[in-house]
Amino acid sequence: MSTPTSTIRMASRTRTMIGSIIDSSTALLASQKHDIVRFAMGAPNAELIPTADFDRLLGAHAPGRYDYGATEGEPELIAQVQAFQQRLGIDTEPERLLITTGGMQGLDLAFKLLLDPGDLVVVEAPTYTNGIGTALSYQAEVIEAPVDADGMIVEDLPDIVARAGRAPKVIYTIPNFQNPSGTTMSLARRQLLLELAEEWDAVIVDDDPYGALRFDGEDVPAFAQLSPGNPRVVQVRTFSKILAPGLRVGWVDVDPALRAKAIDAKQAMDTCTSVPTQRMVADYLSEGLLDAHLTRLRGVYRQRKQAMRRIMTAQFGDDVTMTDPQGGFFLWVALQGRLAALDTQKLFPVALRHGVAYIPGPAFAASGRFGNALRVCFATSTPERMADGVARLAAAVDEQVAP
Ligand code: PMP
Fold first, then answer.
1. pTM assigned to the model
2. How far is CA 50 from each of CA 108, 281, 378, 380, rounded to the nearest angstrom?
3. Residues with CB under 6 A from ligand 1
4. Does residue 215 form part of some domain?
């Protein structure tokens, strides 16, 4: 991405602001006028958003709905989030919860409170680069840990850290149905990561927007379940993927001392998260609608994941390998064989012209690796649309590899 130069004297931290590589692909996508099958954005499709309930609840009268709210969040929503966390198996209390303006603000707050310039952050490779963008904006340095089918390869961390020559202050992980790989960190690795965080005096930033969207297999206990009340675990959560991203409502579940500072920091950012939206989400939860909605989503996403894998395999056979996520939104596709040399960034505009969009692999690593991989979101499209999209992808690939 090119950054415009300016004669204005900007803060040194602007030099480490990377902007969103993911969003620049989606901005290009948004400017297209022809029909495009969208495997790019990690967002639920319109038909999976309970808009009728939202409209009804937003219209309900409640005094103070349009006033400023408490920075930590509306008490009704905090109570509902506590109950929801409990249903997911995580004991918490209102003193640990802070409502945020989406998961991004949770990440921004966490990194703002934890990182000084030059501090080291371990990140997964590939990872959600918008997340590490927040750490970089506080002038942190990132080091990459590889990911396999069981999530971050935590056993490799001692060597990686030894090579870096100093201990990390933060370990940033997306443990469930990781964005972009779809993989889930195994129990043994979670336990080892907790031990390493202790040894290094580091904090685990546990970014988990997708954990409630498990459609196959058994839940793996969260860090907070393995080590209840551990102040080294910062849980960042959001309603974006389980309700709707435009709500911009999320939460963090943290040690009360950190929460107190986070409230101060949030006060200086946006005073409070939108009050009408918070109350609408609180009412949605208090009417008991979320659990039924999640059950529906899980069924739809299971079917869509299976369809995507089936269609990709039928189309590309051994020329691709794919992850097999048990939840969430994403498949990570690596090109091999006859397609091994294909560059998914160069393929992207060709695919757009053919009417299909995905996110190229290099968008998911600060180092720009993964040129022969791509992320596919299976959550947005019906199986019929997917078949069209994959056929268009194959046409784009053929155009690129044709002699
Ligand atoms: N973390 C991860 C891993 C995500 O995938 C996303 C959204 N794509 C976020 C955080 C940000 O969530 P929100 O949209 O609620 O800010």
1. 0.96
2. 28, 11, 19, 15
3. 42, 102-104, 128, 131, 174, 179, 207, 209, 238, 240, 245, 250
4. yes
